[in-house]
Amino acid sequence: MYRTTDGYTWTKAQGTKKGGFRCRGVIEPASKTSDGIEPYDVIVVGAGYAGLRAARDLATSNRSVLLLEARDRIGGRTYTVEGDDDGFLYEMGGTYVTHHFGYVLAELQRYKMERDLIVSHESGHANDYYTLNVEGAPRRNLSHEEAAKLTTRAWDLFVDIDGAGCRKVCPLPQSQLDNIMIPREEVEAIDKRSCLDRINEIKHLLTAEEVGVLSTVIMLVTGGKLENSSLWECIRSHALLTHSSDNFAELWTTYKLREGQSAFARRIFEEAAEFGLEWAFNTPVVSIRDDPGKTRGRVQVTTANNEVFSAHRVICTIPLNILKTIEFNPPLSAVRQEAVDLGHINFMTKIHAVVEGDGLASWNGVRSPGYIAQGYGDGVTSKGFSHIVGFGGDERENFTPEKEPEKVVAAFEAMHPMKVEKTVFHNWCTDPWANGGPAWWAPEYMSKYQDELQKRHGAIFFASGDWAHTWRASIDGALEQGSLCAIDALRELHQMDKANNRPYRL
Ligand SMILES: Cc1cc2nc3c(=O)[nH]c(=O)nc-3n(C[C@H](O)[C@H](O)[C@H](O)COP(=O)(O)OP(=O)(O)OC[C@H]3O[C@@H](n4cnc5c(N)ncnc54)[C@H](O)[C@@H]3O)c2cc1C
């Protein structure tokens, strides 16, 4: 298995080390292109799930496709590394899957992986309880059931802005702005509100513990600050939980892939490669030029090494927060440019800690404020140590995990007594190819920009989990977007073939 330069690990003995992890997402050879193919039918920029899905769908429809990726691996914000010392699979970004993710389920079935799941949480180890440690309330341990009840009551009040558990305002999460059940203006009015507005409105109905837990959960879900996180995004998420917080853990934090996300992503890549996909890793794109005057090779894609590739169509999957680094010619519309300049507000922290003993494998808890505000046990390593996943909100002002390992260790140890042996993580906020976690939008962002972000720009299509219709900010949303843009490109290529009397290809 090849090694990626992505990610960080820390141990007391070795300090912080960048990259060097075994990762199934690394593809060898790093480049496979042949002469004489250009213009490609389609160039796909970015090899995350949106790009992989688009590239696979186009290649299996016998289209010539070039996949360009800045990193040395596939998977983008979702990848798995394998510990050299313990063989443990660490999910560095996107992790959890559920059968409620329609696109994910279809892909898992396609590769016969739908039963290949493992459960994140193990009960029965020594510290089988939840530690609640929030401002304004004394620290205490409670059962997981009590903690779920407390969190659920607060969350349900928070999202219940219509007296119907948000069924009236968000009946159809796959079409939030324009659907048959609620006028767009009503949704736009709610979309103006922040999470902080809503907490202030209901906090007199909550205990100090409930306010603390709710604020922490929201901060972790949004990856932002309460004041700049859109309330609507929480409502949409609740609607996707089939309007019931009973499904919160089952849908969001329970099922992982046994072989890891990178093995799944690799299946998609390998199928595309079998059908003639070409690719180049370590190849950042710097500009995309659409020249409608040309009939052949109408779009030109230039890389940081000054190579120029051409295609009839381009599918750009570059994440929202770094789209502004790409030069588009002609320039993007004023509205899209504004959206791109603003970006999203999710700057979350996710860090794995391997800690002495197996007792904490059943533990869960929150501590707020804290750089790491939630931790939960997620399995036991082959050495008998507990694996804890820690999450934090936007802590960019307070610490940079790769530079300040002592702060990371202290943050874990402040949640519950533990001895941290090793940490493993990816800092998505300092990552030049992401500049943030999965997209969470600010108030009014959806109303103003969602439609525009999903639009094409001449012969360039834009696909990203960051502006998906349904499961925005998830693996499913990325697959949705890749699929939809591939369909649009295929239709147009088919029309071009017809116009040029070329035979039907499939
Ligand atoms: C910490 C974390 C936890 C998450 N947890 C979950 C979860 O449990 N479940 C879930 O469903 N989702 C989760 N997500 C969200 C999910 O990972 C993302 O929504 C999804 O991976 C986005 O896929 P994408 O293809 O749209 O974007 P990306 O995966 O970001 O892919 C875009 C690709 O473009 C490449 N690129 C960028 N710039 C350039 C350039 N100039 N030239 C060439 N290539 C470029 C990038 O390197 C990247 O490979 C999580 C995300 C994070 C960060």
From TrEMBL:
Protein origin, superkingdom: Eukaryota
UniProt keyword terms in alphabetical order: FAD, Flavoprotein, Oxidoreductase
Oxidoreductase among keywords: yes
Keyword Nucleus tagged: no
Cofactor(s) this protein cannot do without: FAD
Signal peptide range in chain numbering: none
InterPro entries cross-referenced by the UniProt entry: Amino_oxidase, FAD/NAD-bd_sf, Flavin_amine_oxidase, Flavin_MAO
Amine oxidase domain location: 50-486
Reactions catalysed according to its record: a secondary aliphatic amine + O2 + H2O = a primary amine + an aldehyde + H2O2
Root EC class: oxidoreductase
Family to which the UniProt record says this protein belongs: Belongs to the flavin monoamine oxidase family.
Name of the protein described by the UniProt record: Amine oxidase
